[in-house]
Design brief:
single chain, alpha/beta, Rossmann fold, 18% strand, globular
Length: 279
């Protein structure tokens, strides 16, 4: 694994690159810390060149400031990583807010995406008009205003099924807690107001798969994935486990992701030499 800092517009992004093979960019959501998904990166590094990073303003990256986060800027950061470490084209996996960023990247910079898997984007605005869960995140914002980011973070963790039932890496958890104010004050409006660019996504010339965890059926951070898939004519898949199963059991989640990624890559490019029998 090699790591470093990549200069981008107004920030430096902490990155890690592992493995060899087709390029794969992993994008995390709330908390923006690549450590949450490092175990998955390790699991996939024997088949892919895996690019993992702390999002702008989070943990080991710089760029924290008073300006509200924009998804356009987040997509630009993801593109910069693909340009630098993947020769301008990569498979992309995003979870939660990272799935929202992945969908924005696919709509705004389709030339750098070989294929996208968007796992549980909490895009509640994609739910039908009149659905009572469309305003869920506004209610969380009200909690931030009344009781502060720490209280909102605790409430959100309780809401996300499965979190709190297993131990996080201590350093990752410490960094995550340090990101909560940035999340709820700076990033929250961009994530909660997200509406997919259905037209651009439906015209994508690469495979897009929306996905959700088997233990999250029917929940309001899993349901939007189905709605988005229907509206853009994309496939939908169920993965093992919970919202961040890759943090709880990287091997289990990685087995499902590996299968879909290899099939997705083989639809857009030749099978890499490392997968071919050389006897």
């Amino acid at each position: 694994m090699r790591s470093g800092m990549l200069p981008v517009d107004g920030a430096e992004l902490y990155y890690e690159v592992r493995g060899t093979g087709p390029a794969l960019l992993l994008i995390v959501g709330a908390g923006g810390d690549g450590g949450l998904i490092a175990g998955l990166a390790e699991n996939l590094a024997n088949a892919f060149t895996v690019i993992n990073y702390d999002r702008r303003g989070n943990s080991r990256s710089t760029g924290r400031g008073g300006a509200t986060m924009t998804l356009t800027q987040q997509a630009s950061d993801a593109k910069a990583l693909i340009d630098e470490f993947a020769g301008g084209k990569a498979l992309v996996f995003g979870n939660s807010g990272g799935a929202i960023i992945g969908l924005t990247l696919a709509a705004q910079h389709p030339e750098v995406v070989r294929g996208l898997i968007a796992h549980e984007p909490p895009a509640v605005k994609a739910l039908p008009e009149g659905d009572p869960e469309r305003d869920f995140f506004e209610k969380m914002g009200e909690l931030v205003d009344k009781e502060g980011p720490q209280a909102a973070g605790a409430a959100f963790a309780e809401f996300v099924r499965g979190e709190g039932t297993y131990a996080w890496d201590e350093e990752v958890q410490k960094r995550f807690l340090g990101n909560l104010k940035h999340l709820f004050i700076t990033e929250w409006p961009g994530f909660t107001g997200f509406v997919p660019d259905y037209d651009a996504l439906s015209k994508a010339e690469f495979p897009i798969v929306l996905a959700a965890g088997a233990e999250d059926r029917g929940l309001n951070y899993a349901r939007p994935s189905i709605e988005i898939a229907k509206k853009i004519g994309a496939s939908w898949a169920e993965f093992p486990g919970i919202h961040m199963e890759f943090n709880r059991d990287a091997a289990l989640f990685g087995a499902g992701l590996r299968t879909l990624l290899t099939e997705m890559h083989s639809r857009t490019a030749d099978v890499p030499d490392q997968w071919k029998y050389e006897g």
